[in-house]
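User: Fold both of these, please.

Assistant: Here is the first one.
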Amino acid sequence: MEEQKPTPENMTMMQGFEWYVPADQKHWVRLEKHVPQLKAWGIDNIWVPPGCKGSSKEGNGYDIYDLYDLGEFDQKGSVATKWGNKQELDKLCQTAKATGVGIYWDAVLNHKFAADHKEKCQAIEVNPDNRNENVSDQYEIDAWVGFDFPGRGDKYSKMKYHWYHFGGVDFNAANGKSAIYKIVGEKSQGWADVPDVDDEKGNYDYLMGSDLDYSHPEVEEDVLAWGKWLAETVPLQGIRFDAVKHYSEDFLRKFITQLDEQYGQGWFFVGEFWKDSLDDMREYLQRMGKKFSLFDAPLVYNFSEISQGDGADMRKVFDGTLVQAEPINAVTLVMNHDTQPYQALEAPIADWFKPLAYALILLRGQGYPCVWYGDLYGIKGEHPFPPSCGGILPKIMLARKLYAYGEQKDYFDFETCLGWVKYGTWDRPSGCAVVISNAGPGEKRMHVGEIHKGEKWTDVLGWSDREVEIGEDGYGTFVCGQCSVSIFVNKDAEGRDKFAQEFNSNIYEE
C-alpha cells in the first residue's frame, strides 16, 4: 500500500510596506520585531521594499540610485535608506530565516535617479503617447546620466554609468524642458523592440528617470553581477521585479536563469506587469518559460468594480483573471502600494469589500495570495487609515493556514451571495465552509461531508453567532451578515484556540 504523503502547507506572502511608511530609517527594525508574530498568524514570506539607495533618504527605493548600496555608504544625504541601514537589514533577514520566513527582494532594474553629474548627448524628442513617433530632429541635450557613486567608490563594482548606458531621459538641463527624449548616437541602440518590452504607447521601454539600456553589454554585465552579489550578500527566497514590461525580457530571462542555476534553487520570482489584459499577461508568462509569476492585476480591477457597485454580480469575480487562467503563476492580491488611497491612479477597492476579497484569495486553492502591510497595520502619512477589515484579516490568514485544504466545492449560484467548502485532507481533516455576501444577509446550504455529521460549526471570525449542526447527510446551513463574510469550522477543530489571541497591529509603538 502506497504511503500517504503529508499535505503541503498553504503558503501566504505579505507585501511588507506601504507607500507612506515614515521616513525615519526604522522600518527594518520594526519589521524584524514583528516577524515572529507574522509567522504565527500564517505569513511565510515577506516582500520587503526596495532596499537599495534611492535619490534621497525619504525615497521609497523606486527612485533608485545605487544597486550596490544597501544602506552602507554615505550617499544622497544619508548612510541608511528610508528603511534603515545594512546592519538592520541583515538582522531582519537573519530573524526571518531563524523563524522560517522567507524574504523576497524588490529589484528595481529599469532605471536610475539622482545622477552625480550631467553629460551632453544626442537625443530625439518623441510623442509621449506614441514613442515610435519622433516630434523633433536629433539635437544635443544636457542630461543627468553620469553616475560615479563617490560614497561607495569601486567597492563591489567598478562600473560607472554614462550617457551611452541609457536609452532615454525626461529632462534637458540645457533648456529646462521636460519631455521624453530617446538617446541616440554611435554607442546607443535606442529603445528595445516590442515584444522585448511592452507595446503600450507604441513602445513602453521608457518609464521614468534615466532609462537603462540592456542592449549595452556593460549594463547587462554589471546588473547580472549585482544579482550574484545580492544572492551572496542577503539570505533571500525570491525576488519581486518592478516594472517588468518596461525593460528587456531577454535580459530578465538571463538574470533569472543565472540565479536559478547558481544560487536560487527553489527561489520564487514574480513580476509587476500591471496591465488589464489577460492575453498580454499569458503571452508574457509563455515567453518567460513559466518559471515566473505575475501579480493578478485583472483580479484587482474586478474587485474594485464589484466594490463600487450596488449588489454587483460576484459570480463573475474571477472572469478574465490570471488566477482563473494560470493559477500556478498568479499572485493574487487585494491592495498594494500603487493602488492605495492618495497613491492610486484608479479607484481602489472600497473598504467594506476588503474582507470578502481577502476571503476570495486566502481561502481558495488557486493562486498564491499576497496580504498587504497597509491592510494589516494601517496607513501613515497625510491621510492616515487604520488597519482594514475590522481587524479580522489576521484571522482570515490563520484560517487559511489551518483549514483551507483539500477538494473545493463552489456554491456560486446566487449573484450577491457566494459560498464554497474546503473538504480537508487525510492529515488536515477539519475543512471549512465560507459564505460571503455583497448585499443583505447571506445563507447557503452546503455539503461538508458525512464524516462531520453531528459536529457543531461556528464562525472563526466571530462575526456570526450562528451554531450550525452538521446533518446525517453531511449538509449544514451556513450564514453571513449583510456585506460580510463568515468562515465556519468545527468548534472543536484543532487550532480554534488560536483565534482568541490578539494580533498586535501597532507596529509603530515606541
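And the second sequence with its predicted structure:
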Amino acid sequence: MYEICPETAADEPEVEALYDLCFAPGRTALSSYRLRDGVPKVADLCLVLRTDGILLAAIRFWPVRVAQKPVLLLGPVAVHPTAQGEGLGGLLMRNSLARARKLGWARVLLVGDAPYYNRFGFARLDDVVMPPPTNPDRVLGLELSRGAWVGVTGQVTRETSPQVVEALAHRVRGLDAASACVTVEPPDLAVSQEDDNGDQSAAGASADQ
C-alpha cells in the first residue's frame, strides 16, 4: 500500500534530495525556475508518495499566468530510481490532477516529453511560450474544464497578484496535511507496464528543460 499526502515543511529536505538524485546538477537554473522564484507552491497539489514511511515519489505545482489567465505549472515530478517502472509517477499524476480539478483549476501546463504525457491528456500548446531556451515541442497543456486553453496564448509569466501569492503563502503555513492523505493500492500490472518508461520520463520529462 502507498500513502499520498500533501507535502509539508518537514518533507521538504527529503523532496529536495529526491529531486537532486533524479535530475542533473543545476536543475534550479532551468527556465521554469524563473517562474517559481519567490512564488509559493500550490500546497494542496504538491504531493509525496510513501510506503512504510519511505519517500518514493513527489510532485509539485506552481501558479503562473498566460494571457492573464491562471495556470498550473506542473513539475518537477520524480520517482526514486529504485521504484521506477512501478507506475508511481502515473499514480501521482492522476491523483494530483484529480485534486486540481476538484479545487476548480481550469488548465495545466508542463514542459516534458509528449509521448509520456499524452496518456494523461496533455497535448502540445503551439501558441504558449515558455522562457527560453525551452523547446516548443515540449510545452504541453491539459484542460481540466472544457475549452480552458481556447484563446489562451502568449508568454508564460510569473504569478504576481499580491492576493494570490498571499493566499498561497497562507495555505502553505496552515496546511493540515493529515486530513488530505489517501491510501492507494499499487498500480495493476497493465498500468505499471504502460508507465514503465514513463516513470523514467517523469523523473526528467517535466524537469522544465
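Strands lie at 2-6, 47-51, 54-66, 69-79, 107-111, 123-124, 128-129, 139-143, 154-158, 182-184.
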